[in-house]
DNA sequence: TGCAAAAATACAAACGTTTGCGCATATTTC
DNA sequence: GAAATATGCGCAAACGTTTGTATTTTTGCA
């Protein structure tokens, strides 16, 4: 079998040294590895004196616990997996930061995977995470993922699952979502109150709860204000900048004087179309976006938008994971976060 | 000792089942675990027939290799660690994506840590990654980290190290950086050619090579064009929006009519100050930023900026890691990427 | 001083893989 | 037809921990 390189006290200066193990420490002190292990774990079964001695020599030798071995033996890891569609979206990277802010202090580490909005990548990510024996998975599913089967497999194999933002409702485990319905309701109501008369909607893919909920909120606000719903000014699958630009033209043809958009990028397209065609926002036309992307406040006019507090969502998703580990029942772990309407120039009809 | 839950063929429907191991597969087929292991690894020492049989039943039983055990035995993992100051910065998240695009197909997984620009967090991250036995570390050090000691420890313990963007030059291992000097030179030269006469500089912390190089490039461009360097219009430690706003006032007092900024956020502050004070950009005042943040093109006026191709940088950093694994010498692995000047309205003097 | 109880440490198995070696059986070679 | 080679698989050790149990040492107390 292979030989082990034993820890050597710098016989050549600056030499690369094999990492010392608890066995090396044990050998150096003429004790057994089990005592070393217990000592480093702070177990009181080993005397304070040797505990001190051990941790000192461990530090001297530059010992670092091998988490592979440790986790293998213990049968559990302190790693949680996180799957997001894309890491380079303001929203998702902030959710990640938020989750990290809770999980790191709790002793967990994060391993991040991207699905790139593809179901296949998502499945691969789930497999990778399971193979790495993560303690749980926090995820927002890809847009391609329309059935919840692969997510169900996660909980079935005993892993903690927390869905966030985009969540299947028929799945056991925790979920943290925005209250998209109420948010969209408020945004639409704000447009009505501001005096816009014919308000359209740029929505997203209706296979996702996120977008159906927003559309429903939009419709309810209209209905509650006695405005008839006109399906011809509801444009689904329209959350990109291009689609926003394109559908703004259609909305204008249909006589709209305002749009509630399910995404800031779509709203950006709307503003750009208006700029190109000398349409005065907000006086002639009102726009509200969703997400509060970092550019929203920087546009001219600054974009009114529905904020989804990403960092907070990450916090709560992480907390939900910890709660599951503590044995809280799933029922208590379906969390809805209110959205906040940030009113800026793009909806201030003067 | 603890009992193992053996794999059970769904005695209750939908029951949570323990993950099957190669031992379970072996038992089911009345062969030994070693054969199973070899079969699943595609080893030709086991016959094609049994190989087929094994991989079929493995699939049936829902077997997934336990990477903890595998890596422990093999003495190496397929995980590489990545440390960035903040994940929710456009630049860093794109570098991560770029690295992932190379590493995933090569069979590696990424574990991401944030230093939050704090040296302590960075050290902790390094420790965590080492404990997790990563195959290498790709990182951009925190601004607080002014000596390269903790980075040196990485290579000393035999890990592959790739620095990107912010890199200590005295460290063995690979590095991928922007050609900040030439980039800044070009940006400044462009301002000169556009007819601006008194060009100042909003720089960053001079403890970082990134910012000293940019300042040197700026100075060289002035010198090459026969313009005297005036230290009073060089503002260091000024890469935030606030500082940009604040130092724009000072630059104006000092008679500047243009600024080359080491960051888009600083340039944003400059533009905002100009807007508040009715200063016409670009006619009265020229601005160039650095980074091409996503908002740069959306500002009014659109911001001329020096692009640092983050995705490409991630690609190359990952490739450098793979090269190290292949045994390429460090000398070949000091890579400089050219920057690209994207000319937009903010520097078009009319 | 002796003896039980308590404290400190040692022993050994186990986590799930991988892999060098050995041992059969099957195939080739002269 | 015997010797040499290939093929297919099993055995057992090892990776570095953790932990239940056993053993030794120390302590307290009569």
Q: Could you walk me through the main structural features you see in this protein, from its secondary elements to its overall organization?
A:
The first copy, chain A, is of the alpha/beta class and 350 residues long. Helices cover 41% and strands 15% of the residues of chain A. Chain A contains twelve helices and twelve strands. In chain A, strands 2-1-3-4-5-11 form a six-stranded parallel sheet, sandwiched between helices. At the A-B interface, helix 4, helix 5, strand 2 and helix 6 of A face helix 4, helix 5, strand 2 and helix 6 of B. Chain B binds a DNA duplex (30 and 30 nucleotides) through residues 1-2, 4, 21-23, 31-35, 37-38, 41, 44-47, 50, 65-75.
Please supply descriptive tags for the structure shown above.
disordered N terminus, homodimer, alpha/beta, elongated, DNA-binding, six-stranded mixed sheet
Gyration radius over CA of chain A: 27 Å
Order of helices and strands of chain A: HHHHEHEHEHEEHEHEHEHEEHEE
Task: Please indicate the percent range of residues of chain A in DSSP E strands (runs of 2 or more).
Answer: 5-15%
User: How many helices of chain A in DSSP terms?
Assistant: 12
The shape of chain A, in one word, is elongated
Amount of helix of chain A: 40-55%
| N-C termini distance of chain A | 82 Å
Record field, number of beta strands of chain A: 12
- Give the integer mean of the pLDDT values of chain A: 93
Low-confidence spans of chain A? 1-15
The greatest interface between two protein chains, and residues involved on each side, is: A-B, 47 and 47 residues
């Amino acid at each position: 079998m292979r030989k082990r390189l034993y820890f050597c006290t710098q016989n050549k200066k600056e030499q690369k040294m094999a990492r010392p193990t608890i066995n090396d420490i044990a050998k150096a002190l003429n004790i057994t590895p089990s005592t070393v292990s217990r000592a480093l774990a702070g177990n009181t079964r080993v005397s304070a004196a040797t505990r001190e001695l051990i941790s000192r020599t461990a530090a001297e030798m530059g010992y670092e616990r091998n988490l592979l071995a440790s986790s293998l033996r213990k049968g559990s890891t302190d790693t949680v997996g996180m799957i997001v569609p894309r890491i380079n979206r303001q929203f998702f990277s902030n959710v990640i930061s938020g989750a990290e802010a809770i999980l790191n202090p709790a002793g967990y580490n994060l391993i991040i995977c991207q699905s790139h909005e593809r179901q296949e990548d998502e499945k691969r990510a789930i497999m990778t995470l399971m193979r790495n024996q993560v303690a749980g998975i926090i995820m927002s599913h890809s847009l391609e993922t329309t059935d919840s089967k692969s997510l169900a497999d996660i909980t079935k194999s005993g892993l903690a699952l927390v869905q966030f933002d985009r969540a299947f409702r028929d799945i056991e485990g925790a979920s943290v979502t925005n209250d998209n319905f109420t948010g969209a309701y408020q945004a639409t109501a704000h447009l009505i109150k501001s005096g816009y008369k014919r308000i359209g909607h740029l929505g997203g893919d209706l296979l996702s709860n996120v977008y159906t909920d927003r559309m429903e909120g939009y419709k309810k606000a209209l209905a509650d204000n006695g405005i008839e719903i006109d399906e011809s000014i509801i444009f689904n699958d329209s959350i990109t900048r291009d689609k926003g630009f394109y559908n703004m033209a259609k909305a204008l043809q249909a006589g709209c004087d305002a749009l509630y958009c399910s995404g800031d990028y779509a709203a950006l397209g709307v503003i750009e179309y208006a700029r190109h065609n000398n349409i005065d926002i907000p006086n002639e036309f009102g726009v509200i976006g969703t997400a509060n992307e970092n550019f929203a406040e920087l546009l001219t006019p600054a974009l009114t938008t529905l904020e989804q507090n990403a960092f907070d969502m990450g916090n709560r998703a992480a907390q939900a994971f910890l709660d599951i580990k503590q044995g809280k029942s799933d029922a208590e772990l379906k969390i809805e976060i209110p959205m906040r309407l940030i009113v800026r120039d793009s909806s201030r009809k003067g």
